[in-house]
Automatic annotation (TrEMBL):
Record's bilayer topology term: Multi-pass membrane protein
Ion transport domain residues: 18-219
GO biological process: action potential
Superkingdom per UniProt: Bacteria
Keyword Methyltransferase appears in the UniProt entry: no
Entry protein name: Ion transporter
The keyword Transmembrane helix belongs to this UniProt entry's keyword annotation: yes
The entry's keywords: Ion channel, Ion transport, Membrane, Potassium, Potassium channel, Potassium transport, Transmembrane, Transmembrane helix, Transport, Voltage-gated channel
A Pfam family assignment: Ion_trans
Organism: Schaalia odontolytica
Subcellular localization, as worded in the UniProt entry: Membrane
Length: 233
C-alpha cells in the first residue's frame, strides 16, 4: 500500500503524471487569492480546498519518507527538515491565519502562500533540474554569497564614514551598497563628495563582477545537467 502511494507521489507512471497535473493546478489556484487585496467566500473556499489537499499530500509524503530518504525509521525524523518539506509546511500555515481571529493580525503568514510557487519544482522536470544545479553548485554559490556580503559590508562601512551627512544610519549605507551591487540605482541615496563618488565607482565595478559570478556558475551547471541528460521531456 505504501509502495503504491510512494509511486503515485514520486513515480513516472500515468497515475503519477495526472497527480502532478492536478497538484500543479491546485498550486496555481491557491495563489489566486494573493492577487486580490480583499477576500470573498469563493477565494476562501479555494484556499480551504487547496490547503486540505496540501495537508494530505504532506502527510502522505511523510508517511513514505523511509522510501524516499532511505534511512529506515530515521527517515521520518529527517524528512520534515528537508527543503521541500519545509516549503510544504510553511505553505500550509496561512490557513490558520483565516481560521483563528487572534492570528489575523499576523499578515506575514499570508506571505507564506507565495512559497507555494516553489512546490511546482516537484512536478516539473525542468525546474527539478534547475534545483539540482543549485544543489550541486551550492558550495560555489555559497562562496559567492559570502563574497557579496563582504562587498556590501565593506562598501557600506566606507561610504558611511566618508559621508555621514548623507547616510544618516548604517542601514542607509547598507541599502545603498545593495542597490549598487545589483546595479539598480534608485537614486534616492547617493554620495556627493569626490571621495564618496570614487568609492561609488569602485563599488559599482566590483558589483558588476560579483553579480556576474553566480550567473556563470549556474550556466556551467545547467550545461553539465544538459550533457548528463538531467533535462529531458
Amino acid at each position: 500500500m505504501r509502495e503504491r502511494l510512494y509511486s503515485l507521489l514520486n513515480g513516472d507512471g500515468r497515475a503519477a503524471m495526472w497527480y502532478g497535473r492536478v497538484m500543479t493546478a491546485l498550486i496555481v489556484a491557491s495563489l489566486l487569492p494573493l492577487c486580490f487585496k480583499g477576500s470573498s467566500p469563493v477565494l476562501e473556499s479555494i484556499e480551504y480546498v487547496c490547503v486540505l489537499v496540501f495537508i494530505a499530500d504532506y502527510l502522505a509524503r511523510w508517511a513514505t519518507a523511509d522510501l524516499k530518504v532511505g534511512k529506515g525509521g530515521l527517515s521520518f525524523l529527517i524528512y520534515p527538515f528537508t527543503p521541500m518539506a519545509i516549503i510544504d509546511l510553511l505553505s500550509i500555515l496561512p490557513v490558520f491565519n483565516a481560521l483563528n481571529d487572534a492570528l489575523r493580525t499576523l499578515r506575514v503568514l499570508r506571505l507564506f502562500r507565495a512559497l507555494r510557487a516553489f512546490k511546482l519544482i516537484r512536478y516539473s522536470k525542468s525546474t527539478s533540474a534547475i534545483a539540482a544545479v543549485f544543489e550541486k553548485q551550492r558550495e560555489a554559490l555559497l562562496a559567492v554569497l559570502c563574497l557579496a556580503i563582504g562587498y556590501i559590508l565593506v562598501s557600506a562601512l566606507a561610504i558611511f564614514n566618508v559621508e555621514p551627512e548623507t547616510f544618516n544610519t548604517f542601514f542607509d549605507a547598507v541599502y545603498w551598497a545593495v542597490v549598487s551591487l545589483t546595479t539598480v540605482g534608485y537614486g534616492d541615496l547617493y554620495p556627493s563628495s569626490d571621495v564618496g563618488r570614487t568609492i561609488a565607482m569602485i563599488s559599482s565595478l566590483m558589483g558588476v563582477a560579483v553579480v556576474a559570478l553566480p550567473s556563470g556558475i549556474i550556466t556551467a551547471g545547467m550545461l553539465d545537467e544538459l550533457r548528463g541528460g538531467g533535462i529531458s521531456d
